[in-house]
Amino acid sequence: MTGTTETTGAGGPLVRVTGVGKSFRGLHALSGVEFEVAEGEILGIIGPNGAGKTTLFNVICGALTPDTGSVALDGRDVTGSAPYKIARAGMVRTFQLMRPFGTMTVLENVSLAAQHERMPAQRLRDRSLDVIERVGLGSYAYRRATELPTAGLKRLELARALAMRPKVLLLDEVLAGLVPAERDPVLDLLADLREKDGTTLLFIEHIMAAVMRLADRVLVLDQGRMLAAGTPHEVTSDPRVIEAYLGEEPVTGDAGEEPTHADS
Ligand SMILES: Nc1ncnc2c1ncn2[C@@H]1O[C@H](COP(=O)(O)OP(=O)(O)OP(=O)(O)O)[C@@H](O)[C@H]1O
Ligand SMILES: [Mg+2]
Fold first, then answer.
1. Claim to verify: residue 177 and residue 243 sit in the same structural domain
2. One domain for residues 114 and 211
3. 135 and 13 together in one domain
4. Residues 17 and 43 in one domain
5. Distance 56 CA to ligand 2 centre (A)
């Protein structure tokens, strides 16, 4: 694996995944997955449908306990800890299938997420409105979540995660379902999160132009195994990655009409 691995205050990577394996009734969804992510780094995770990407996030964030291996956050073993505890420790994820509370307003949805930390009502409201503004949903704050179009639901999902002020943010296909013109503002926001807030990002994405633009390093999963890891250019020119996932289409850094590599 290439790329720098800066040390954190605790003297190691911010996220360390070691030898993770997870099976579902004989299906090896993950085997021997291991990697490190430094503070402030952006790691892209790619691979075909069913490669184990979402399962990896489920293991990292505590929704699933791995059969083997471990996950450490800032040097602390969090393997199998409850998701809310991991979120409190600073690692928060978004869901591939959004699950907002449809009957609640955008502000109520975001406030509910922000509430994982106790704070006075006014501060909770201010923080939630700030985040809503930041993701570009300002004009929807008092509308019901059910009134949001797909792009709005994606932004709401992001706002709910940001309201928890994560040190590490895991994004599961935040661009899926967005038309190219809707993607750029989200990518700008993610770049901004790293620049201004120092947020460390792990993002699963099928839109390769976004991966090329945002990722410092890329991890490629295939049938639960790590097929490759390296810079975006290294992995996209790796014949094994081209064969298993990319095909022969050219991969550019232009986040325009780039084809995606999955239908989800
Ligand atoms: N809770 C579960 N029970 C049984 N099988 C599961 C479960 N979760 C995932 N799987 C299986 O594990 C494999 C990996 O699934 P996963 O959702 O992690 O893939 P993915 O890489 O996120 O795919 P996609 O790109 O389609 O989102 C698949 O074969 C899937 O059917
Ligand atoms: Mg998935």
1. yes
2. no
3. no
4. yes
5. 9
Q: 50 in ligand 1 pocket by Cβ < 6 Å? A: yes
Residue nearest to atom 26 of ligand 1 (CA): 49
CATH of the domain at 241: 3.40.50.300
* Mean pLDDT along residues 97-120: 86
Q: Is the CB of 52 under 6 A from ligand 1?
A: yes
Regarding whether 79 and 47 lie in a shared domain, the answer is yes
pLDDT digits (tens, 9 = 90+) for 181-220: 999 999 999 999 999 999 999 999 999 999 999 999 999 9
Last residue in a domain, options 123, 144, 165: 165
Å from CA of 113 to ligand 2 middle: 22
Longest CA–CA span in the chain (Å) reads: 55
Domain that holds residue 258: 1-90+166-264
Question: CA–CA distance from 132 to each of 52, 116, 147, 179, 205 (Å)?
Answer: 31, 17, 15, 21, 23
Give residue 223 CA to ligand 1 midpoint distance, Å. Answer: 10
Tell me what pLDDT residue 251 has: 61
Cβ-Cβ contacts under 8 Å for 96 (sequence gap 6 or more): 54, 172, 173, 176, 204, 264
pTM: 0.89
